[in-house]
Amino acid sequence: MDKKLMSLSMSGDKKYLYQQKNLQPLLNELPNYDGNKWLKKSLKTLGKIVKKNQIDVLEWKILTATLKDLEKGFRIFSDYRHYRKITIFGSARTPVDTLEYNLAKDFAKEVTELGFMVLTGAGGGIMAAGNEGATSKNSFGLNIKLPFEQYANSFIKDDSKLINFKYFFTRKLFFLKESDAIALFPGGFGTQDEAFETITLCQTGRQPPIPLVLIDKPDGNYWQSWHNYICDHLLKDGYIQPEDTALYTITDNVNHACKVIQEFYRVYHSCRYVKDLFVMRLNYDLTPNQIEQLNENFKDILMTGKIEKMPTPKKDKREIPHLPSIGFYLQPRKFSRLYQMINLINTLPCEDSAYCPPQYR
């Protein structure tokens, strides 16, 4: 298949005719092609690229390497779809004998005991601590090919869940796509980039709501100084809203960090869009009075209508359990307020005896 597709890089009318004659039969041989609209759209996009006369060798190399990165990630994570996962970011240069290293190791160990698997960048420092604490059984390594510094650490080096990426952007895609929580320890430019990119995606709704914890050593001021900069410049000058600082939690206590992550999923389970309707899945039903409380406290996030209980679907195509849910039309600039709503929902007791799992009674 690869040879046939690569031969489509011919130019002009011959290329187009070759595509028409050979690409469609090739696509028809693929399993589930006729019944998968997204596969059709993807291959149609590939066909448009093939048809473009001006694409050069470098662009083909970028496309090929990107597809290889994506294929590796999709393949390896496909067996772990039903596991909650957390990404641990931090400096590759953190020495083994520091408080930060041991905190990251302890945090990784504790969070796996809560049922999470751990993702790291597979390098040294904080990344090695995360893989060591979680053990290779419960962790992944998303390595990046660099001319210096970045080699897979010994705790994940020979594991089948080590993925070597060529590009930062494909690597970052999987860090966020696969994560149900993010933990950041002190680090350099890379860590700051990961912190701001994660917060930006959460603030703009391009990342589904997840808990984000910034962990420092006891009495450390790395993240507090960072937060002060946010308040003194971004917030004070009106570049962000006050509720945007609710997107993250700063702590120097591993137990508290784990509690923040665990509590985030106490009632809230996950979310999705059904056309323009924002649907939030919950671990148990809310009562009419509790839903009315949400409407009163968060009417500012609604474009129209009210927060309402949704019927439980007979079939969820995303293989998520049939859970009770609420739905509403969310204003696009109110994702930070959405986090505040989730935090309130997670404090509401289970009062509906018709649907109250044993662990919540």
In short:
By secondary structure, this protein is of the alpha/beta class.
Query: What would you call the structural class?
Result: alpha/beta
Biggest β-sheet strands, sense, barrel:
7 strands, parallel
Specify the CATH architecture of the largest domain.
3-Layer(aba) Sandwich
Spell out the helices and strands N to C. Answer: HHHHEHEHEEHEHEHEHEEHEEH
Strand order of the largest sheet: 4-3-2-1-5-6-7
Q: How many distinct beta strands?
A: 11
What is the CATH level 1 assignment of the largest domain? Alpha Beta
Helix content: 40-55%
Q: Which percent band covers the strand fraction?
A: 15-25%
Radius of gyration from CA coordinates: 23 Å
- Low confidence ranges: 1-19
* Net shape: globular
Describe the protein's architecture and organization.
- The longest helix has 21 residues, at 57-77.
- The chain contains twelve helices and eleven strands.
- It has three domains: 2-55, no CATH class; 79-264, Rossmann fold, CATH 3.40.50; 268-360.
- Helix 5 packs parallel to helix 6.
- The protein has helices at 2-6, 12-28, 37-51, 57-77, 99-113, 126-134, 168-177, 189-204, 222-235, 254-264, 288-297, 335-345, and strands at 84-89, 116-120, 139-144, 162-165, 181-184, 212-215, 249-251, 268-274, 277-282, 302-310, 325-330.
- Mean pLDDT is 88; it is low at 1-19.
- It has 361 residues and is of the alpha/beta class.
- The strands form two sheets. A seven-stranded parallel sheet has the order 4-3-2-1-5-6-7, sandwiched between helices. The protein has a four-stranded antiparallel sheet with strand order 8-9-11-10, covered by helices on one side.
- Strand 8 and strand 9 form a beta hairpin.
